[in-house]
Design goal:
The chain has about 170 residues and is an alpha+beta fold. It is about 30% helix and about 30% strand. The strands form 2 sheets. Strands 1-2-3-6-7 form a 5-stranded antiparallel β-sheet, with helices on both faces. A two-stranded antiparallel sheet has the order 4-5. The structure holds nickel (II) ion. The site of nickel (II) ion has 5 residues, from helix 2.
Length: about 170
Amino acid sequence: MAVLEIKKFPADVLKQKALPVEQIDKDIQKLIDNMIDTMYDAPGIGLAAPQVGVSKRVIVVDINSLEEDSEPVVLINPEITDTDGLIESEEGCLSVPECVAKVKRAEKVVVKGLDRDGKDVRIEADGLFARALQHEIDHLNGVIILDRISQLKRELYRKKISKKMARVQR
Ligand code: NI
């Protein structure tokens, strides 16, 4: 298992729609294991494959990642099949450093997908878990939190990042 490099905005892979996983083989399982390692190392509460440069529909989530005996949730080809309510809350993203944004999302979701072994999974989630699932599934569709905030805030963030990059290059 290995910790992978996390791709940061404005990396192209973060804007692409990820492809469905056709076959769950050793390579996909290795990717999943590495994504879990990378999430815990960051540390974060979720990670999507595009964030490690792989444009495939795989996510891992663990909202209790700071606790010792927590278990990661792995979903391959996840789909939101039902939503309920709407709630705004602050969110961050490992691929969008130094950005905390208020994002409106469904309060509850039902998500279907496959687990690490290809078995059908159906998850009913609310609270932070529901939010994390929606955030990671967004990544599979090329959507990041900057796409979910106002244009003004997005521009401010872009300026902040480009100034920072200019400083690094100097
Ligand atoms: Ni993210």
